[in-house]
């Protein structure tokens, strides 16, 4: 470990750093008492259902019937928490604590309890013997709380149930948050995951002038659930080389001796904080040379299950994988294990930590900071408290002029880029776009008129729109982009994650976990609503002409549809004006996952701005101009659509039917808000039975052309009148490197397939239907030959606009 020296830290905080580095005996006593109390409460949560303060000898009936939880990482997490609390008391530093080893949940719950926050939020879990018993009984129990750090844990923004995301959440939390320090404890098991391995590079994007700081603490205790960890077994020089290669300045602490470990870690934390303050001071005082700082990183090596049983039944436990979960598993049935548990609990001397009522003693309470500086009470970890509305320009000012529908082409996402450009200008401290190196590709490049890409590594003259001060976040990692946005929104700022549609599946699990967080937060009145997680999918399945099958996959729609209706939203705007209206709504919303799907390529524009606003407000509507339905009676067939390319095919199919089967009454229904299809009792956006009947009737067959997998529509209309009458065309995993129209043909969703479906499913077959089916089949055969010979689509398809069918055939 490097010692703190005066020449290394040249900031106004020199004296504070020196004091932090050398705790006196009284401070060591406070640290150790708090740590012992937290360890005691951690073990109590895992084991005890009664007798929380050991007022009487421990008996089998005091033990929970099921022993669940994770002890091994918990003492290390508590140790770090105690020292950061002392740092905050000395400095007033605003800090949040992110526990990567998420199943160290009992340690973080105990910390909130000792700080008093837990009892403030959950009054029944009071700081007395009865409250302590309730604290123990609720842990990992029916009707209680999970075993990991979750949304129910005060001070948490990091859902620890799935490993790998602690650093991305920490970096997102401090972006545009200059006064915040995020303590990110990385478990050595977690460090083996792909997302975590890719997230060390966050310091390559962190600007000390306007961002806060992340202090990673790599907790190497050497073992995971059933064996050793890679970094725990590597030569320490290799670990140092790995992390210093990412640009960190390494500070190391190792051991298990007490109070020596308290002294060493206090010095290490003081050194790290001093270096952070020095970096920030230089950047904010105009003394920064612009080079990427070498931010500190602490490696903490302590035994797995530190202070727990050394051996059980003659087998080594502490310091091994056996300490990972429940070191003593047979406590109810094994008197020796029960006695060992009692000795273990009493080793923390609870009589010195809790008074006669069960409340923490002053020696324990005195370590905690005051009020909102307590990490369990930080408003940064309840970001809705700090959220300010975006200043959003009037999206109508970016409208595409539409004189008649389906006559002109435009790149719809380009208009969204222009809107976001001006949101950047109006909100320089609370809006960011996160995108895996695809901002220009996705036609969102207008944002670069307001902000460069942020980058802290070397910049060359050949680089374009890249600078230290940039706030457009591009890194070739969906995990990083998604996670940064999560941390950004959970701490109260707004943004969007834009990515190629197929590769949103790389981070789909993060979308699911974030949705679960939002769902559970709705059940907690103390959790304030936060800005929504806005995800834009473009470069979609239907238009990946050159990339081919690997880039053709609409799976994230299906993922989001499976989440609860109180958080999940899926929008499929068919054109630019509808996209602008939808985006405005999403940027203003709170605590949703908003999934917006639209392609970046030039596409037909259908609605004026006023029409688009009304269409998006309702979520679905009849496009009278596209069909032959006069509204006086039910149509013969309903052609429905959701998604940009399939909407074009549907409108084209309706036009063919209008020209060639004028006696067939065709209704065209477009759906922009996918959740309107669901029954109102199943989703708050579900349209009423009356509106559903007005759009789709109760009896007429519906040919539904959908952007995603066909099964999604069947899922959504389940329970609607005669749901079996819906015939769905969509993506059926037929893809390759091919033309845009050939993609619809391969997936049997082309205009010709839709026309044949309409003929096959109408209850009234007009004259000429047989001939039209034959013509459609001939067109498909002609198409197949044409694309192979000419390497592009037939002119009547490639250049089609509404009205072009008149006189053909």
TrEMBL record:
The keyword Lyase applies. Residues 600-801 form the Xylulose 5-phosphate/Fructose 6-phosphate phosphoketolase C-terminal domain. One of its GO terms (molecular function) is magnesium ion binding. Residues 24-385 form the Xylulose 5-phosphate/Fructose 6-phosphate phosphoketolase N-terminal domain. InterPro entries: THDP-binding, Transketo_C/PFOR_II, Xul5P/Fru6P_PKetolase, Xul5P/Fru6P_PKetolase_C, Xul5P/Fru6P_PKetolase_CS, Xul5P/Fru6P_PKetolase_N, Xul5P/Fru6P_PKetolase_ThDP_BS. The keyword Lyase applies. Pfam families: XFP (PF03894), XFP_C (PF09363), XFP_N (PF09364). GO terms for biological process: carbohydrate metabolic process. Its cofactor is thiamine diphosphate. Keywords: Lyase, Thiamine pyrophosphate. Belongs to the XFP family. This is Phosphoketolase. It comes from Actinoplanes friuliensis DSM 7358.
